[in-house]
Amino acid sequence: DASARSLLTLINDVLDLSKxxxxxxxxxxxxxxxxxxxxxxxxxxxxxARQKGLSFxxxxxxxxxxxxxxxxxxxxxxxxxxxxxxxxFTDAGGRITLHCAQSDGRAEVxxxxxxxxxxxxxxxxxxxxxxxxxxxxTPERQQGVGLGLAISRDLARAMSGDITVQSDAGKGAxxx
Length: 176
Ligand code: ADP
Hints:
This protein is an alpha+beta fold. It is built from four helices and seven strands. The strands form two sheets. A five-stranded mixed beta sheet has the order 2-4-5-7-6. Helix 2 (about 35-50) runs parallel beside helix 3 (about 70-90) and helix 3 runs antiparallel to helix 4 (about 150-160). It is globular.
């Protein structure tokens, strides 16, 4: 049931964060198909978004290589976190887009939402473990503990990438 699932998520998050911070996270470096990775990773969030009354569009530019090198499972984990946050912090009627572009032979994934946004002063600290902006505004049933972005950025860096954010309060958010 839901409480067992959320407990499992919490345990996995805490383990992932300790592993990656101890330099013990195993990251594979293998070819994978980006479109397949996105489809299988984001299908259930796509449904959740639509059930909440949000539009969710996903676009891959033609010049992005179909096959990329990296850890497809970890990339899915990052994107599930970013799109999950976009769904969580955007009210009905809002829009979420995921856009993959090519940049210097690497894939750049941009997740944009039209939701509540993040005040400028908090843009750095949201990547710290357990930091949540306006916890009281988030419905009980959508609880997280503020580990997703810390893990995601560590994972991205472990794959020699990174995560950056642009946002302001009330202005939506863009994570690259
Ligand atoms: P959690 O989602 O469990 O709270 P995260 O580490 O994923 O933890 O995010 C930390 C905080 O950053 C969130 O609690 C929220 O305040 C803010 N945040 C993250 N993504 C978004 C977004 N797309 N729009 C608005 N705020 C966001």
